[in-house]
Amino acid sequence: MVNPWEAQALLALARQLTPQADEREDLRVFHLILPCVAALVLAAAPSAVASGGVVSPSGGGTPPSGSGSTPATPTTNSTTSGGSTTSTSNSGGAGVGAGPAPPTTVSHPIVPGSVAKIKNGIAYAPSYAPLAVQQAIWAGNQIRTKPYLWGGGHAAFVARGYDCSGSVSYVLHAAGLLKTPFDSSDLMLWGLKGIGRWFTVYTNPGHAFIEIAGIRFDTSAEADPHPAKGTGPRWRPLFLDPSGFMARHPVGF
What is the Cα–Cα distance from 75 to 224, expressed in whole angstroms? Predict the structure, then answer.
């Protein structure tokens, strides 16, 4: 026979281990809702992927393309220096330079390297030369067909014709190395004595010419095996034996 006290103790333990009616009802509702929620999540995933979004475990996602909240794209800035274009990206990448040679044009002909070239009477400035050197060569091209005119280029840099020192003064002025025209005697005191790296003026009391980056600008056809027509300033090959002339060059060139 069961002891009444033991029966009550067993009954109390059974109540603790068995959920009450309202608790059982909550568990039943939860088990019904859970499959519905899972079905909704599975249904939403394909549409999110198709629209370009990615479903995250938290229920969010990256915005699809065209949603009005797109990632910023890097922009590219282009800068031009002397015809040379360099691009840099705002994304943090370093731009790649176009090299030392700007693109050649009719008014600014360029040849690769550090020595100028003469093609069909036109001087091509070397790409590795300083800008002042290139500007002097391009300026010489502007007057390379002008006639010889005694005293030409001395009253003003722009003239209808040029003599020897007038044409030398013209290209030095274009390079920023001379403010006023000089005659051949003035050039004997100009700059520094000796041969320069890029510019060398050969002068004496009666004549002057200039060598720039390996070519010569001269009104005289001396030592020119194929002289161009006319007697004014022309581009010519170097004078290999300029005896009787004083060599002068600008500071830094």
Answer: 54
**Interatomic CA distance for residues 86 and 147, integer angstroms:** 41
Query: Residue 224's domain spans which residues?
Result: 110-249
What pLDDT does residue 78 have?
36
**CB-CB neighbours of 76 under 10 Å:** 11
Q: Identify the CATH number of the domain in which residue 243 sits.
A: 3.90.1720.10
Q: How far apart are CA 94 and CA 242, in angstroms?
A: 49
In 3D space, the residue among 123, 108, 139 whose CA is nearest the CA of residue 214 turns out to be: 123
What is the count of structural domains for the chain?
2
How far apart CA 172 and CA 201 sit, in angstroms, is 10
Looking at the domain assignment, is residue 123 inside a domain?
yes
* 158 or 230, greater pLDDT: 158
Q: What is the pLDDT of residues 125-179, one digit of tens each?
A: 999 999 999 999 999 999 999 999 999 999 999 999 999 999 999 999 999 999 9
